[in-house]
Every structure is written in C-alpha cells, then in structure tokens.
Amino acid sequence: METPVYDFLVDYAEKNGLRAHMPGHKGRSPENRLAELFRLDITEIAGADSLFEADGIIAQSERNTATLYGSAAAAFSAGGSTLCIQAMLAIIKMEGRRIIAARNVHRAFLNAAALLGLDVQWVLPRYSGGILSGELALPDVEAALAASTEPACLYITSPDYTGRLADTAALAELCHRYGARLIVDNAHGAHLAFFEKNIHPIALGADLCCDSAHKMLPALTGAAVLHTSREEYAPLLKQAMSLFGSTSPSYLIIASLDLCNRYIAEDIRGDIAAALPLIAELKSSFAERLIFAEGDPFHITVRAAESGFCGTELAELLRSSGVECEYADDELLVLLMSPFSDECDFRRLRTALESAVSGASVREKGHRDISVKLPRMACAIREAAFAPAEEIAVEAAEGRICASVKVPCPPAVPIAVSGEMIDRDCIEIFRQYGIKTVLVLRER
Q1: Start-end ranges of CATH 3.40.640.10 in the chain?
Q2: CA-based diameter of the chain, in Å?
Q3: Which of 71, 149, 195, 327 has the lowest CB atom count within 10 Å?
Q4: Inter-axis angle of helices 138-147 and 168-177, to 10 degrees?
Q5: Nearest to 57 by CA among 69, 44, 67, 68
Q6: What is the CA radius of gyration of the chain?
Q7: Which residues form the Orn/Lys/Arg decarboxylase C-terminal domain (predicted)?
Q8: CATH second-level architecture of 4-266?
Q9: Cα(188)–Cα(298) distance, integer angstroms
Q10: Rounded Cα distance, 306 and 368, in Å
Q11: Helix intervals (H) in 286-340
C-alpha cells in the first residue's frame, strides 16, 4: 500500500533544503539518537497538506485507512482518541441528541461533556471486582432508550481497560431500532477489524468510533483515527475535530498512521494468526494457578485476587524481571500485548510471569465487592467543572459537590462526576483506589 505522507517527508528531508519555516529545530537535533526524527518533522509546507483541511497526501492516506477498515470515512488524529471523543460528542450535540452513556467511560469523555455543556444519562454496567470492567445489560440500555423523550445516542467503551468486549452488534441493532446513534470508544481495539472474524465496531454497526492506533498498532503515541459508518457524518469529522485539535499537529504522528496502513495491508493478519496460539499457550500454562478475564486476547488480564494473589505485587515482581505491565491494582493485572509483539516477547513474558507467580505471596482467593450506585446530581457537569473549587481530603468530602473528576490514569474511569454529590459509597471507592484528595465546589 502507498504511504504518501511518509514518502513526502523522506523526499523533503533528502533534498536538504534551507528550512525558512517552522519548526525551529530546522531538521537538526541536539541529540544524535533523535536526528532522523528531526529531519522528518515539518509543518504545513507546500505539498504537505493540512490535517483539518486535507485534500492532498493526508486525505489520500485517510482514504486508505477507510478502505482497510470498511468505514464511510476516516480522519486522522494527532491528539489521541481524546480529540476523537471530543469530535464525536460535538457531532452528536450538533444533531441535538441526548447522550446516554455507560458509566465506565474514560475521563476524556467527561472533560468533553464539560466543554460542550452536555447532560449525560448514565447506565450502570453490572460490575464485578471493581469499577474498570462490567457487563452492559441490554434490558438496562433499552429501558433508557425507551424512556428518552429526545433523539438519543448511546456511548459505550469497548474493549474496556481489561479487554472486555461489549455486545456491540446487539447494542447497535437496539439503538437503531429506537432511532438512536451508537458511539464506541474503541481506543483499545484498533486491531479488531483484522481477526478472522471482523469485530471492529464499524463492522458491527456503530455510527461513530475512535481507535487509538498507538495502543494496539505500531504507531506513535497520540496516533488515533476517527471512523464513521454514515456518509452524512463524513464532512463533519474534520469540522468537529478542528474545534479542539492543535493547529500544529505532529507530522511524525501522522506519518506513523500512514505507515500503519502499510502494516495493516501487508502484515497484521499474519501477525495476529501467529500471536493467538502463543497467547493460548501462555494462558494454558497457568490454567491451574491464574484466572484470566475473557475478552480481547491481546489484553492478558489476570484476575489476581480471584487467583489468590495481589496484582500490584505481581507487577512489582514482573518489573524486577524487566517486564513493565500496563496496569495493576490489588484485584487485577493487565498485560497489554499487540499483534506487533513477536514470539520472543511472549516467551519472555511467560518466563517472567512464571517467576512472579512462584515468588508472590499467596492470599485467600476472592475479590472485593464494590457497591456502585449513581450519586445524586446536584448541578450540571459544565457548571461544576468551571466553578470555584477547593481540594480537600476524601474523608471530609461527604455531602460536597464534586468539581473535577479525579481518577488515576491509567485507567481514568470516574468514581464521581463533576456536579455529583459525594456520598459514603464514593468515599469508600476513592479509598480502595488510593485516592486521598478530591476537588469539590467551594462553599459560599
């Protein structure tokens, strides 16, 4: 597959012309190890196209992406899925639709809701062992859609941080039956289109979705793609993204998405086919000692507490063997691999995990039960997010109004949302996740 953006950058660098334009480094690096990257880092010069008004090489590369994924249109983001989420919600606001969202959203969703002045109706997933992952029940979603007196849009996160996959096809059918739209935060699932069975949200009926290419594909951090399956949304993608995105997007990030197209076209299916048996073999070797969560196979999520271990301790032991995990807490250990991980990576992970499990202290098996209820909404998200606030100890926050979402990132899943009244249940969850202070509205 052609790589028009990358080819342009290489050609421009090799001409070795005088750069009387931004950036200030002029194609030269003060550090030798970054020298080649600096040579390829440019701005919107003649022929380089412009991300938010693309009609040249960037537009060509985006069309390649849309073809690979089967999207009606695809738009590149150098600002991660955060920018894509902002744009998706802006498009829905343009349509005047009410947002119904599964509660296990990323912090980026809540920040966008504050900026756009959105009111959100929450649907609680049926959590198990923490707030990171839960099953979204179809009857709960249907009840919310049926009760809505306005045109609606359902927003879900799938895969979630642990790799759990929602029943996106069923949710899409349900939404469309009620005349609603479906948005999927697919930040962790850019690879899902290339399994033997395509399970990417666009293939399953989503109207809009975002992929963080950098999470699961060989692309630079911040590389993401906004997809739509609806032709009428195609001209809105860049319009909405330009409201929030930097006017100086990184050409290195854009070029990495361009190169990713070639990887997808030529190599990803073979890499997935090679990796899946290695993942199955790894899990099988620990079948008597570890419980693994179901979902996307590249999210190797250990239910540590249910297996009789502490996820944090396992992560520390892995680190001592040179393996850095994606996330760990008392309950879970998330080991994030990708189709680009090779056989050596999986063998090394298996050896390190064997050492960690052998060296970890054994606990009584079980998981913490967290009672998640929706706190009372005291004021609008936007009103609370922009109101005068103060930081206080979590233990002193009962009865106070949450001003700003405070969550560890990763995983960035909210406990209390801006505008909600903090109650004892919230405080207990804050405590369990090690959060000691919270921003609340200043009392008058």
Answers
A1: 4-266
A2: 67
A3: 149
A4: 20
A5: 44
A6: 23
A7: 380-424
A8: 3-Layer(aba) Sandwich (3.40)
A9: 10
A10: 9
A11: 304-307, 311-320
CA distances from 126 to 87, 106, 133, 356, 376 (A): 28, 17, 8, 31, 19
CB-neighbour burial class of residue 378 (10 A; exposed 0-12, middle 13-18, buried 19+)? middle
Structure-token match 């609340």, residue found = 440
Determine what percent of the chain is predicted with pLDDT higher than 70: 97
Contact partners, residue 436, CB within 8 Å, separation at least 6: 393, 394, 430
Residue 419 gets the label, from left (phi > 0), alpha (psi -120 to 50) or beta, of left
Low-confidence stretches of the chain (pLDDT < 50) are none
Number of Cβ within 10 Å of residue 310's Cβ equals 20
Report pLDDT for 126. Answer: 82
Q: If you search the block for the tokens 């990803």, which residue do you land on?
A: 268
Q: Letter for the amino acid at 139?
A: P
Residues of the chain with CATH 3.90.1150.10: 269-359
- Secondary structure (3-state) at 390: strand
Are 112 and 85 in contact by the 8 Å Cβ rule? The answer is: yes
Count CA within 13 A, CB hemisphere, residue 81: 24
Closest CA to 392 of 382, 380, 404: 404
Residue 58 neighbours by CB under 8 Å, 6+ apart: 5, 49, 50, 51, 76, 254
pLDDT of residue 290: 98
Instruction: Specify the pLDDT at position 251.
Output: 98
Question: What pLDDT does 198 receive?
Answer: 99
CATH fold of 269-359 reads Aspartate Aminotransferase, domain 1 (3.90.1150)
CA distance 258 to 431: 44
**Residues contacting residue 172 through CB under 8 Å, at least 6 positions apart:** 182, 204, 205, 206, 207
φ, ψ for residue 110, nearest 5 deg: -70, -40
Q: Which two tokens stand for residue 347?
A: 């063998």
Alpha-carbon dihedral sign for residues 280, 282, 283, 286:
positive
Question: What is the location of CATH 3.90.100.10 in the chain?
Answer: 381-441
Question: What integer pLDDT is reported at residue 444 of this predicted model?
Answer: 73
- 381-441 fold: Ornithine Decarboxylase; Chain A, domain 4 (3.90.100)
pLDDT at residue 438 in the model = 94
The upper half-sphere exposure of residue 27, i.e. CA atoms within 13 Å in the direction of its Cβ, equals 16
- C-alpha 140/C-alpha 110 separation (Å) is 21
